[in-house]
Amino acid sequence: MQRETVLNTLVFLALPAVAAIALVLDEPFTITLATRAAILALAAVGLNLALGLGGLVSLGHAVFFGLGGYAMGILASHAQSYAPLDLGLFVIEGTKSMPVIWLTAVVVSALAALLIGLLALRTAGVYFIMITLAFGQMFYYFTISWPAYGGEDGLSIYVRNSFPGLNTLDPIQFFGLVFAVLAIVLFIMGRIERSAFGLALGTARQNAARVETVGLSPFHLRLVAFVISGAVTGLAGALFADLNRFVSPTMFSWQMSGEFIVFIVLGGIGRLFGPVVGACLFVLLEHLLSGVSEFWLIYLGAILLFVVLFARGGVIGALVGRGGHHG
Amino acid sequence: MTLLSLDSIEAAYGAAQALFGVDLSVEEGEVLALMGRNGMGKSTTIRVICRLMKHSAGAVQFNGQDMARVPSHLAARAGLGLVPEGRRVFARLTVRENLIAAARPGPWDLRKVTCLFPRLAERSGQLAGHLSGGEQQMLAIGRALMTNPRLMLLDEATEGLAPVVRQEIWIALDAVRRDSGLSLLVVDKSLAELGRVADRAVILERGRSVWSGPMADVSGDIANTYLGV
Prior knowledge:
By secondary structure, chain A is mainly α. Chain A has helices at residues 3-24, 28-53, 62-81, 98-120, 125-144, 171-194, 196-206, 208-212, 218-244, 254-267, 274-292, 296-310, 314-320, and strands at 85-86, 91-92, 155-156, 246-247.
């Protein structure tokens, strides 16, 4: 078995192990931390398809995270108030059902990614970064000035949404649900990475003209990757809002997009489990260092600087070598 | 049936005009040799056919379709398979991944390509960038075949390779042509080897097609005048 596979397996098992130990020690807060890490990892796994495999440095992925969050917030708040949601052409009822909310979050995020991608992917490099950032800021300021759903104060949901057969208010059950979603998405992403589509996407990042000569359009490859990426990040947004039972414009902020990139860089760009390692490290450092100093981000910055300068393959690359051929 | 036709093609790199009037045609199942000394416009003609470069005058028709506004990826999907000069394999993918990434439905699949080039089967899991020049060339041809083209264009497919490897590639191309009836447009400097494979030849001189005829006639004065051999 390759060293990276062993490490991936250990990382994958570490999250449920932490949650199980916390359950035994009756530490629900630690279970919530593990859940938070798994959700942030899911968001970054989504971005990793666009950034790691497609080379698309999107500084606007918080758009999809926020849309997922607001899909949950809006549907749940209408279910909470028993007031139907009037969309002009048609009226829909709110819902507290997680599967329905997830589906909505995925569809809305994918559509947004399609529209943003159609415009942004006509550019490259710094212009692509700026366009995605601009979309992020548009959504951020729109939600701030949207009083119907809390404006700057955000929107609280009093009871966590439901999933058939589970008590989602129980931290360990909600963790189990989130972890199962993360596992399924990682499995799908692994398949995508090894598929003809994934191989072509990775190659288009290295040399677009070469891909065109075999009949593949780099633009279409990147657009499909961007849409899948946005949909996964949107799903993470819905779960994040459910974890906190709160959604606010900060989910759209460019800092959020920056954090997703930090997870990927920390763990290892283009590696399937890179975002998982990065998100877990981030949550761990956030928890440990914020107890030491309120300026804990300075320490995180130093660690990130070290990784970028001395461990270009991220933590996974430093531990197993930079041999990942898609990296 | 005429598969590809170029009619008075002109093309330029910015202000520098490279093609001043290229005429050629490739029939279904035919092997056409595109010949000429260095810098006469052979690779530019290939680039224009594959839509990697736009022509400024004239017409390119492939399978009855005007290719003027067709982007390069759709030209490839229409049935133009390019084996580019310098091989240009996907260096960071394995041999198998190179072939899979390009695959489209049709008679050519992984099994058939690895039968044609057994060395690719032996190197299946190896990174393409780590292959020898000859193996990379076989991979480049295999990758083009995996797109199931109607016309395969080979730009200096045996350049810089050891004689024994060149021989192996020419034998494979002959087999491709014989067994599948695939049309080929081949750019190469080796008159002897082209003579064994090609049906007809077109010779370019300073961006113009100056001679065309049966491959068997490319000898003596013609070879001396236009090819310097």
